[in-house]
Amino acid sequence: MERSVLDQKDIEARKARLAELLGTQLRVRGKTLETRMARAGRLLPKWARRDLEKIVEASRHAGHPKLARMVDLATLDKAEARVTRYLRSLDPVEARKTAWLRLAGLIALNLLIVLGVFLWVIYSLGHL
After folding, report:
1. CA 52 to CA 124: how far, in whole Å?
2. How far apart (Å, rounded) are the C-alpha atoms in residues 37 and 67?
3. Using an 8 Å Cβ cutoff, are 78 and 55 in contact?
């Protein structure tokens, strides 16, 4: 039997699954999907934020009988599948390692610049 009307329990389960994925994959905290979305901010691509917004909007409509019938379940399923696929493809360990390597590279570059300026000042004053 195919579903034709959005069920409140179904949409809440979807939101809970996506909120859990946001928490584990992006290490974003918050009690609700809306809170985690806001905290994720630019960590999510624009299309993923739009898809999550569709799911949140559907949850608002689910409580109202007439609005619940207006929600396109196929679009909702696609949006959930796309976001889930994207979040599962992320590797939090690799992201953390990349962040540490970028920080180390930035520190090394700044040290080289400071050393270069220091040597230039010493050379221009004639002490080298």
Report:
1. 59
2. 23
3. no
pTM above 0.85, yes or no: no
Please classify residue 40 by burial: count the beta carbons closer than 10 Å to its beta carbon, then call 0-12 exposed, 13-18 middle and 19+ buried: buried
For 100-116, write each residue's pLDDT tens digit.
999 999 999 999 999 99
Q: Which of 41, 3, 16 is nearest to 24 (CA)?
A: 16
Domain boundaries, the chain: 1-90, 92-128
Per the CB < 8 A criterion, the answer to whether 80 and 72 are in contact is: no
Q: Which residues of 82-104 are buried (b: 16+ CB within 10 A; e: fewer)?
A: ebeebbeeeeeeeeeeeeeeeee
